[in-house]
Design a protein that fits this description.
Blueprint: E1 26-29, H1 38-48, E2 52-57, H2 60-72, E3 77-80, H3 86-97, E4 105-108, H4 122-125, H5 128-149, E5 158-164, H6 176-195, E6 201-207, H7 221-231, H8 240-251, E7 262-265
Parallel strand pairs: 1-2, 1-4, 2-3, 4-5, 5-6, 6-7
Amino acid sequence: MSNGEANVEGTARVAPPLGGLMKGKRAVITGVANERSLAWAIAQAFHQEGAELAFTYAGEGMEKRVRPLAESLGAKAILDLDVSSDDDVDATVAGIRAVWDRVDVVVHSIGYAPREALAGRFTDVTTREVWRITMDVSAYSLVALARAFKPLMPPGSSLVTLSYYAAEKVVRNYNVMGVAKAALECSTRYLADDLGLDGIRVNAISAGPVKTLAAAGIRGMRSMLSENADRTPLRRNIEQDDVARAALYLCSDLAKNVTGEVLHVDAGQNVVGVVSME
């Protein structure tokens, strides 16, 4: 749920192509965990629309999941990336430079908090170390990637990150991840203002609650999903493809004058206050 991923069992459902929206673009995709990841749905959509792709993964264990998926889309590079290390970030950019002379899109789909911090009272489980780790990996990583990739990104390129409604309102047990998502959204606006000088756009997608590997660590997720559909204006949960298409819009020329936005893709959940008890 921290990255706003899919609510359905099985692999991502990919919609028919829209007509080459990403033809000629080169995109770096971070945060793929498995075939149900939002980042994977975005990668598939970009590929369908003509983009060349490069992928990152976090550690040897994740490589076993990511590499076969990335290779199935003809990835130009598949690189290990620890976003908490500036040296690792720089090495990843160097790896991308080895295959591309520019990057048109960076997809930031990275969020992490220690599991013990995602259940219980916020004051009890949010230690200084939990705060440091969560903010570093989940929020500062966007700034680190933006700074590192900026020299490779020409005017008209874009970054997009994935957020969640807990950045705006309390979602119990989401705890410090909600605070990190708030920092991520605020960073999106500051980066948009700063990188606008270089013609680079920065946006975020706030996706509704969905079932993913990341969501497995959130207590009460199963019941949230079962109840959520009835509480949204559209009376349904979202799917991976909903967010993938939003990313296509934000990272294509359709959104050439859209930056600093947090686009809600949540079946309207964010507009609802008190739910009727009828």
